[in-house]
Design goal:
With 176 residues, the chain is an alpha+beta fold. The protein is 33% helix and 35% strand. Strands 3-4-5-9-8-7-6 form a 7-stranded antiparallel β-sheet. Strands 1-2 form a two-stranded antiparallel ribbon. A hairpin with a 2-residue loop joins strand 1 and strand 2.
């Protein structure tokens, strides 16, 4: 009976989901664990890090043949389910909250808003993060129905970020 109710609940969630949010579930020792993230087309020469995606609750992609730990760059997407409009707020509130959290976790980080290019989905706001230390990132924020969505490319150096940006931008261009 529990299995039947769980299946009905999962089916209901799938029907309510927007087309751009990918839903997955994994059976763990503690029962079924649900994951949702913006659907990304996997770029040529890249793979999904499935285990890392499930560990971190995001759709994590990296170059084929690499692991999460040794990848020179990764692309990931996250969706934060917030059923009430009041909880979701605005894209600007989402950005502000994330940037404040980022500054707390990465003292000395330089964050600047950049103009979206024609290869970014027009509904996304884009920022570049120059992190003092280990990574350089470009982050895009948006809303998708009942979800706050985030896309990021994170690289181990500024040079690798610049080399990876065309892949990230092409991925973003396919996200509608």
């Amino acid at each position: 009976m529990k299995l039947l109710l769980g299946s009905v609940a999962l089916l209901s969630l799938t029907v309510l989901a927007t087309a751009e949010i990918e839903k997955t579930s994994v059976m763990t020792s503690n029962g079924m664990k649900l994951f949702w993230w913006p659907r990304l087309s996997i770029p040529h020469g890249w793979d999904r890090f499935t285990d890392v995606s499930h560990e971190n609750g995001c759709n994590m992609l990296g170059p084929k043949g690499s692991t999460f730990d040794n990848a020179p760059a990764v692309i990931y997407s996250r969706a934060f389910y917030l059923p009430s409009k009041k909880e979701r707020g605005t894209v600007q509130q989402f950005i502000q909250e994330d940037l404040e959290e980022m500054k707390d976790g990465m003292p000395g980080a330089i964050v600047k808003e950049i103009a979206p290019t024609s290869t970014h989905a027009t509904k996304l706001r884009t920022f570049s993060v120059v992190k003092t230390g280990k990574t350089y990132e470009q982050v895009c924020y948006g809303m998708e129905g009942q979800y706050r969505i985030l896309f990021c490319v994170s690289a181990k150096s500024e040079a690798i970020l610049k080399k990876t940006l065309p892949v990230f931008q092409a991925t973003m261009a396919k996200y509608k």
